[in-house]
Design brief:
With 341 residues, this protein is an alpha/beta fold. 45% of the residues lie in helices and 14% in strands. The chain has 13 helices and twelve strands. The chain has a six-stranded parallel beta sheet, with helices on both faces. The chain has a four-stranded parallel beta sheet with strand order 7-6-8-9, sandwiched between helices. Strands 10-12 form a two-stranded antiparallel sheet. Strand 6, helix 9 (200-216) and strand 7 (225-226) form a beta-alpha-beta unit. The longest helix is centred in the C-terminal third of the chain and has 18 residues, at 303-320.
């Protein structure tokens, strides 16, 4: 009896693809990784060769060779927050184009959860981190981040003494624009509701709030500045509290649109009509702000753009070993709608 052994077909390599397409192996590799710098003509040649030769990309082997997981850890405070959702869309869409996968963690603004997530993601060998820091981030987390041997980009909320890149909006200017708008309308008793006082984002807003008053030569009544959770529930609580003031405000600046939605709800409970009885301005310009009733005057903080820029900075650090530390601050824009026309 004769047994015929079928000869094992040789595995097609990336070198075979490169030779067939008439390009270098490194160029073929960049095409597979969907690198944006490769021309469409070159990409087409390589993809045609891949199809003709039947090349299959061995992702596991590639990771072992490059010591890269192709995974980016992204840590945020609360994915139910529409601002964070928009930010994440920008991050994920950008990193997917660069052939990276996002590993998402949520802290719910807890510092201890934040530290655990950072440690867990490092243990899973992420290539880098993008972090929307918890509002009460402390020295322990700062030390943890400064000792990491991988690139980190902070977004939306800046943390002092952390040696990494940062992308955010100019909260001081944004608040200045919003409060100046109210002052120009003749308001002299403006409340500032919501936000965690310890966070950099609240402190920056407070600076803008104070600067707008100083410029208009109007005194700030500190009894109208009430911090609270940056949520709709927090908005309801703080507005009901400020309305108990013997001399209540005629206008309200809200820490965020979510707070503003709660403020509008609280005012409705008291039979107060926004835009007529009292003017309201939010911050962020999340999609719901335009379709809310009444439509909310607010400050655009471009969360999706922040996500895109944060992801791009991190990718450049990984792809080009870019060691220059960047601090990118976007310019806000005031959008006037019915709550303060």
């Amino acid at each position: 009896m004769v047994i015929f052994l079928k000869q094992k077909k040789r595995r097609i390599t990336l070198q075979d693809v490169a030779k067939h397409a008439g390009v270098s192996t490194s160029t073929a590799s960049l095409v597979i990784r969907n690198h944006p710098r490769i021309s469409d003509a070159t990409k087409k040649k390589v993809l045609n060769s891949i199809e003709e030769l039947g090349y299959v990309y061995d992702r596991v082997a590639a990771k072992l060779r490059s010591q890269s997981s192709k995974i980016i850890g992204v840590i945020v405070t609360d994915i139910s927050n529409k601002f964070i959702s928009e930010f994440l869309i920008g991050v994920q869409q950008t990193l997917e184009k660069m052939d990276y996968t996002v590993l998402l963690g949520t802290t719910f603004d807890s510092v201890s959860k934040q530290e655990r997530l950072i440690s867990t993601m490092v243990e899973h060998r992420v290539d880098g981190l993008i972090i929307n820091a918890a509002s009460k981030t402390n020295k322990s987390t700062i030390s943890q981040l400064n000792h990491l041997e991988l690139p980190v980009v902070l977004a939306n909320r800046e943390v002092e003494h952390v040696n990494c890149d940062y992308v955010g909006i100019d909260y001081i200017k944004g608040t200045y624009l919003a409060v100046s708008h109210l002052l120009k309308k003749g308001h002299t008793r403006i409340a500032f509701l919501g936000g965690i006082k310890m966070s950099s984002t609240w402190k920056d807003r407070m600076k803008g709030f104070q600067e707008a008053h100083d410029n208009a030569e109007v005194a700030v009544d500190k009894s109208l500045v009430i911090d609270g959770l940056p949520t709709s529930e927090g908005g309801v609580q703080t507005v009901l509290e400020v309305l108990k003031n013997p001399n209540p405000p005629t206008a309200i600046f809200c820490f965020s649109d979510l707070v503003a939605f709660g403020v509008l709800q609280g005012l409705s409970m008291q039979g107060i009509i926004p835009g007529q009885d009292i003017d309201i301005v939010g911050f962020d310009n999340i999609p719901e702000a335009e379709i809310y009733h009444p439509p909310l005057t607010t400050v655009s903080s471009f969360p999706r753009t922040i996500g895109i820029k944060a992801a791009t900075i991190l990718y450049n650090k990984l792809d080009q070993d870019d060691s220059i530390q960047q601090r990118i601050i976007l310019n806000p824009e005031l959008v006037i709608r019915e709550t303060s026309t």
